[in-house]
Each structure stands twice: as structure tokens, then as C-alpha cells.
Amino acid sequence: MHNDAVVSKTNSTGLRWLWLSVVVFIVDQVTKFAIAKTFDLYESVAVTPFFNLVSVRNYGAAFSFLSDAGGWQRWFFTAIALFVSGLLVWWMKKTPVEQKWPAIAYALVLGGAIGNVFDRVVFGYVIDFLDFYVGSYHWPSFNVADSAICVGAVLLVLDSFLSPQAKEPK
Q: Cα–Cα distance between 125 and 113 in angstroms, integer?
């Protein structure tokens, strides 16, 4: 296929937001690298009265789900993330350029998923370092990739309620 045709196809679909996935991936990896190089495992530094930077390893999925399952979960979660990433790219390709918010949401989720997949494949765990808390209650630690996935998911939910297509009768 001619290069101009590829660029034209990318610019006329949600694929035009793939750059955002790359940015999320890079920011995620740079921040994880910085934590891994400057913090000892389980080290915690108070930043505000409700936020710490920490260095923890998550061998499971969200909220450390299946973190003590014996190792098989590494490849299980990697396979799921790769499958979902493929779906996201396909959905981005099928998303018309006019539907900006779903495409942005897909790009955020894709960048986050690939960031965590990279960790699982390279290290066998995901590096988490953001620790928010109220009093003695700590939200499970997370990272930039997790944040992008959550923001993307929220954008998809909001778009499903607020987009003109959602208001059209079926």
C-alpha cells in the first residue's frame, strides 16, 4: 500500500490517536524506571499528607488479584492484555475520526495495557509506585499505566451516556 494511503487511512480513523498510546507507554516506563533506580523495594517517601511514592511489585492484576498464584498468572494476564490491545487497535481503526473521545479512551487504555505488559514480560511483575491514602486506609498502589487505563475506561462510560449516538433511538 502506498505511504500516502496509509497516512490518509490513519488520519480518517481513531488510529490518529495512537501517538497518545506511545506517550502513555513512554511516561509509564520512564516513571517506573526512575522509581526502580532510586527506591529500594518497599521504600516509601511521604510527598503530601495523603500521598506517598513507594516501590512495590505487583505479581497479579488490579488490586494484586492472583498475586500469590504461583507464576502462571504472569502469562495469563499478559495474554489477556495482548488480546485486549489487539481489540483496541481494531476498534480504533473502526472508529470514525469524528468520534474523538472513544478513540482517545481506547488510546489511553492501549498505552496503559502495553506499559503493564512490558513489565510482566521483562520483569515478571508490574512496578507500582503511587500510594494515596486517608488516615491509615491506603488505596492499592498503582502506576501511570493503571491511571491511563482507568481514565480511558471512565471516558468510555461518559461517552456512552453523553455522545449524540447514545441519545439516538435504536
A: 13
What residues contact 132, with CB distance under 8 A and at least 6 apart? 50, 51, 138, 139
- State the angle between helix axes of 72-94 and 100-123 in degrees (0 to 180), rounded to the nearest 10: 160
Q: Three cell numbers at 104?
A: 482517545
Distance set, CA 47 to CA 39, 40, 131, 144 (Å): 14, 17, 10, 17
pLDDT at 9 over 90: no
Rg (the chain; Cα; Å): 18
Q: What is the pLDDT of residues 57-77, one digit of tens each?
A: 987 655 454 455 455 566 676
Q: Tell me the catalytic residues.
A: 128, 146
pTM: 0.83
